[in-house]
Amino acid sequence: MKRKFIFLTVLSIFCVLSCDRASKPVIMTVNGPISPADLGVTLTHEHVLVDFIGADSVTADRYNADSVFFTVLPHLEQVHEAGCHTLVECTPAYLGRDPSLLHRLSLASRLHILTNTGYYGAMNNKYLPEYAKNETAEQLARRWIDEWENGIDETGIKPGFIKIGVASGSLSELHRKLVRAAALTHLKTGLIIAAHTGPAEGAFDEIDELQKSGVSANAFIWVHAQAEKNYEKHIEAAKSGAWISFDGYYSGKTEQYVEMLQNMKSNRLLSRVLLSHDAGWYHVGEPGGGNFRNYESVFKELLPALTENGFSQQEIDQMMVENPKQAFQIRVRKTTQ
Ligand SMILES: [Zn+2]
Asked: What's the pTM value of the predicted model, to 2 decimals?
C-alpha cells in the first residue's frame, strides 16, 4: 500500500514537471524550437533570397542553391561577427522562400534563422497563387496551419511566424481575407503575424480585422512602419498593442530613425519597437545574385548613433533582444473582450 502511494506520488511529480516543460514558451527556428532566452540580438526583417518572377513561374530550379549558399554565407558570418545572433527571414512562399537553404545557412553561419508561412498580396497580387484568390480564409488558414503542424513541403522545417503582405491604403476584400486567414492561423498556432504594410491606414485596417477575429493587436507586427511619416500614428498603433517595425534602415536614414525612435522613447513605447534593414539578398535572375546589401548598418551606424543621442544600452537591448524575444514567442494572443 505504502509502495503504491510512493509510486503514485512520484508519478504525479513527474507529470507536473513534464507538463511544465510542455508549456514553456519556445521560438521556432529552421533548426527546431529554441528557448526565447537563447534568441539574443535579433534582426527581425531581412531577406536571404528573393525571386520577383511571380507566383505563376517561381520555382527552386531558377537558381543554384550551392551558388546562393556561397554568396550569402559571408554576409551572415559578418553579421554574426558584428554581434547578431538571430535573423528573421521574411521572404514568403511564391517569392523565393527556401527553408532547406536557410537550414544549411543557419548551420554554417551559427545564426538562428526563422522562416514563415503565409502569402504576400502586395504588388498587385503578383505573388499570390491563383487558388489563393478563390479559396476562403478558412481554406488558406488550413494550408498554413498544416505547415506549422507537419513542416513546409517535405522538409519537416516549421515556420516561426506568419508573413502576409497587403497593398497601401484601405484593405481590399482579397487582402482582408489574407488578414482573416492569418488570424485563424494565429489562434490555432500562436505564431505572430508580420504584415508587409504601407502607411498607417492599412495597419489600422489590419488591427481592426484581427480584433474582429478575436486576435489581439499584440499578435501583429506593422512591417515597414517607417513608411508612415506622421509619427503620431506609430504611437497610436503601439498603444493599441501592435509591434512597430522600423525595418528599412540604411546609412542615409540615420536622422529619420533617430527621430522616430526618440518619439517612441518620449512616449515610453520603446517596448513595442523592432529594428531591421530589409536587406540582402540574392536576386534570382541577376548575374551572381546582383547587388547584395549587407546586414551590418544597424550595428555599425544606427546603434552608435542612438548611443550618441542619449539612448542607454538597456534601451538598445530592449529593441534588439527583449522585444524580438517577446514578439516571436509561440503564444496565442486573444482580444480580452
Ligand atoms: Zn522585406
From this structure: 0.93
